Amino acid sequence: MAPGAVLLFDLDCTILDTTELILASFFYTFKEGLGETVSREQILQHFGRSLDDQFRIMRPNLSGEEIDRLVALYRKHNHAYHDQMIALIPGADVALHRWAEQGVPMGVVTSKRLDMTKRGLQQYGLWSLFQTVVHHDSTSRHKPDPEPLQCALANLKARPEDTWYIGDSPYDMRAARAAQCEAVGFSYNTFKAEELVAAGAGHWVRSWSELYSWWEINHHKSEG
Known about the structure:
Layout: E1 6-9, E2 16-17, H1 19-34, H2 40-44, H3 51-58, H4 64-85, E3 87-88, H5 92-101, E4 106-109, H6 114-123, E5 132-134, H7 147-156, E6 163-167, H8 170-178, E7 182-186, H9 193-198, E8 203-205, H10 208-223
Parallel strand pairs: 1-4, 1-6, 4-5, 6-7, 7-8
Antiparallel strand pairs: 2-3
Helix pairs in contact: 1-4, 3-4
């Protein structure tokens, strides 16, 4: 096998554009749960971490019970507005279907829970394209820890040196590097390319068409 023979993807802001939904859910939670306002920048810097980790980092003085209450408020808002506020990132469906037709093993590694991961992918007819989905409850540790990626590799019986992990956040890049996979940054509408490179991205792209073209070049090069 060769690099890129196995493809693993983050979900939020990589396959699905959920940025505005996530921001709106955080704004609601801080206002409703704490009577506070929080800026877009304060939220964005923690994109890629699990939800409970984000609240712990942003408000380290809160108890576990208070964190659980905020998570419940967030999910209430997020679930209510999910379907009308998310969008498929342009070109994701085309590239994913092409890889599926070619028999490329693919998986999703996300910090989101299984129910909402499945809901979002099913909304765009993508759920059946993946051979493994590693979600929040699949592992005890979460990105940037490598455990979620290691879980996906084990499920697919794949070697890290054959695998690309494509994600939009520095936490994705750090997890990929720690798991010894190729870290591919997807700079769409959250983190800038230089932030992804600084976190360990070996390559970065701005669109799904660019990602697919780069994969094709590497794939044919390895075959030749």
